[in-house]
Records
---
Amino acid sequence: MVRWRSGTVTAVRRSWRGAVELEVALADAGGTVRALAYPELVGRPEPGDRVLLNVGALVMGLGTGGYALVVAIPDRLPADPPGSGDTRDGGHLVKARYTPLQPILLGVDEEASPHRAALVDADDLDGLPVVTADLHSALPAVLAGIRADAPGARVAYVLTDGGALPAWFSRTLDGLRDELVGTVTVGQAFGGDLEATNVYTGLLAARHVLAADVVVVAQGPGNLGTGTRWGFSGVGVGETVNAVATLGGRAVGSLRISDADARTRHRGLSHHSVTAYGRVALAGADLVVPAALPAELAGAVEEALAPLAARHRIVRVPVDGLDEALRASPVPLSTMGRGLDADHAYFLTAAAAGRHAATLAGGSAAPAGSAAR
């Protein structure tokens, strides 16, 4: 459960959209910790402020969540947000529901929303290509693939609640603001440019409010996995494929492929992709494979994909120019602590998915790839 600490802010370090990194001296345990505050939730900390902390992720040594999190600045509480009186003009979507820090937000399709009219009867994505990815780290690589051939494409990001709930946690997302027409946070996730109840309304908002040409759907940072067949948050990828099909979109699978991961279950085609697309997804998707993988890796991927070909379209996409596009990413590329050169196949696969989606959107000059089966 929660591991509580109290302390005093000794320094304000870097900040990015929605988040501030701090140094906090602990009151009882001694020493200092690195902490993260979300000003929209707790106010903006200053040196000398007393803060209450949740240090669970820090104690566990989590790579993604290795911060103490500021729960409150008890001696200097922020003012109530505008529109938070008895009327519901400020929205009534409650996210991170029934936790102590539940925010109350304006949903994109609520009556008080300026976008209500565009969404009240919306029911169709009109063939919109939607890239589905297991990990948040795929986002900049998918974008690189889109931009390689369609630099003017309008790309929206739908952030699901499988990982970090606050969109503000992601420095990657902050660095990609100029590459996106907007972020929609769905389910229990919050902090995007638009808030939606679920992935269905999130996709419709991306299409009808943000006017996206391509949408990328992935969880926030911090994938949860137990090392079992079903125990990982990336099963949501299959559920997104079903939602895309239900709404008349075109799902493009960004597969999790690696020859660098030390864990056998993630070598070649990850068991996450095999389970999500093979067992959870009940509708078809375009599963994208780069046309130039190392021979041994390519063979293992082909073998793992064979059972999925009965439902999905296996598409091989040329990779010319994708390495250069990845190296020009405006944010660092990293997955499980591995950069582009350490896990090239992973990022190349995501970029190939982006290229294919751009082709479907009509904005790519590259060949569309060839259906293998």
---
Amino acid sequence: MLHAHLTTLHVVSLILDLFAEQPELTEQLLADSGIAAADLGCADTRITRTQELQVCANALLLRNDLGLELGRRMHISAYGMVGYAALSSATFGDAWRLLLQYPALLGTYFRLDLQVEGELAWVSADDYRHAAALEVFNLEMCLASLKLICDDLLGQRLELSAAQFRYAEPTYSARYPLSFACPLQFNARRNAFAFPAAWLDKRLPLADPVTHREMLARCRKQNAEFTTRQAWLARVRQLLGDQLSTPPGLELLAQQLHCSPRTLRRHLQELGTHYQELLDELRFEQAKDLLSQEDWPICRIAEHLGFSETASFRHAFQRWSGVPPSRFRA
């Protein structure tokens, strides 16, 4: 699971707009997220990914095709300057290469890729490491939005050749053609959609070299700032990950990083996370790996991850993933 870095209220606002005709649901949608209704009117408000996912989980209880619906509303303008840099690219292929060059600026929960196989170009989403219960939802939102981005870039609807999904066919699969009007395959080997590779050479209607250079320079600056923060956070995660069996606590961790606890706490807050959240994420990552190994009993995993009691580990894993460790292993 990646750290819960800061993001905008865009997805949360889309969810609330989707249920705008039922204002009585606002409180239910924001429950346990730490987001107040008053925050919604502030353009500069930033929230963590954890807060965003909580609102998504709340909304998913009300509508099971939520991911598809949100994806169909997330135009390229939702991705900020990297979206405008892509719009001003010379060709469709250039735009895609730009988007894949700056995944951090897209704010996706997945590792995105584009591969040409014969006459088809496949856009895929992989390597999801967040709440397991929200994987299908996030994947639907991601791929549906990427398909919409294709349409926005080209200024016309891109006809798809195929779409594949690793999970079983959902009960609402009849709504998939709204985004993926092509042959669908579930229980497939990847999560991806395909289109004729010849489209990659298509010149974009909004291509503008002057605007593109300006937007590209801004993307590079923003990405450099993000990379610097990520490098520091990677050091924090490494130190904490090496001590999972006996977590050092925030004060000792700060000593190891040669800073004060207050400084460490402030830096983590600026990145949209905190000590306990990082510890939980690292424990969850390792727990999933160990649960895939049959020779590791659950009581041993609990001890290895620094839990004094197996019951405490079971409760924590249920909170992280939505299922108990025994069911996850099965």
---
Amino acid sequence: MASSDLVGVSEDFRGVRPTVLVLASGRGARFLASGGSTHKLQADLCGKTVLQRTLDAVRASGLPWHLEDAGHPGMGDSIAAAVRATEGAAGWLVLPADLPLVRASTLVHIASHPMAGKVLVPTVQGRRGHPVRFAQGCGAALAALQGEAGAAALVRGWGSETLPVDDAGCVFDIDTVDDLQAAVIHWQLVTRS
């Protein structure tokens, strides 16, 4: 992650520093079915694993974070375990670990953006992405989640604000070998410029 990614980003979070929850519990079945020879998070992306690229951005953001990589039956279970492990956090940014192109500056922008409601969803050219930010008051409901749907029902029930961002990494996840190849091309183009 280039240090220039953080230029102009305020380090003042007004006392509110939500915790980034990096969700790495999935089975990666689609990646394997597409011809992958390893779990997608362990696949090589220009010299580092997909997971390491995601963690590099999270670390560079300076935000508190938690890696949830224990085996869980579904996304909801992963979110719940991560929220319980970070009880008392000042809110959460839920980030699937298969988004290795997300920028640190985007994480900071989402974390520091004022929220009027309980949920803030980044969008890229109208497409909803991650990390989804949840206010501290969402903790009990998030900690009770189960199943494959993650927090989608909570987001619908509470409604959500959207935050347009200029970061394709928020919507560029690695589900197949073709996705990984596209990420390699993107990474090479960005690091050459």
